[in-house]
Write a structure and sequence with these properties.
This protein is mainly beta and 121 residues long. Helices cover 4% and strands 39% of the residues.
Length: 121
């Protein structure tokens, strides 16, 4: 796995796990970013639009999702994020008044943030 770390001045540099002074991938810090080459193509998109369980099921096996997850007019009361641990993007929830529970026990980071917009009917 290739890991990019923030250097001085916000520059990203590759952390080579084979060098003596490098951290191993399991010793990651919040400033590290996973490079897109290590993420399956179905886990990478500018925006994942989610309106129902079938849409979220397309990415629940991803450990890392590269791109925004936009939940829009979600039909069910519950959404489950499965194996997703990292969202390199935003989690956006819009116009989903039926959605009352989000199960995301493995999510440990959302790069840009969580946004909820006018979820009333």
């Amino acid at each position: 796995m290739k890991i990019l770390e923030s250097g001085t001045g916000g520059d990203l540099k590759e952390n080579d796990p084979n060098t003596e002074n490098s951290k191993k991938p399991d010793e990651s810090t919040p400033d590290q970013q996973i490079e897109g080459d290590d993420v399956p193509s179905y886990c990478s998109s500018e925006t994942f639009k989610v309106k129902n369980k079938a849409d979220i099921n397309k990415i629940v096996d991803c450990v890392t999702v590269l791109g925004d997850i936009e939940i829009f007019e979600f039909e069910d009361a519950l959404i489950q994020f499965g194996s997703i641990q990292n969202i390199v993007g935003s989690l956006i929830i819009k116009k989903s008044p039926n959605l009352v529970r989000i199960e995301a026990p493995n999510v440990s980071s959302i790069d840009i943030g969580l946004e909820s917009i006018a979820n009333s009917k």
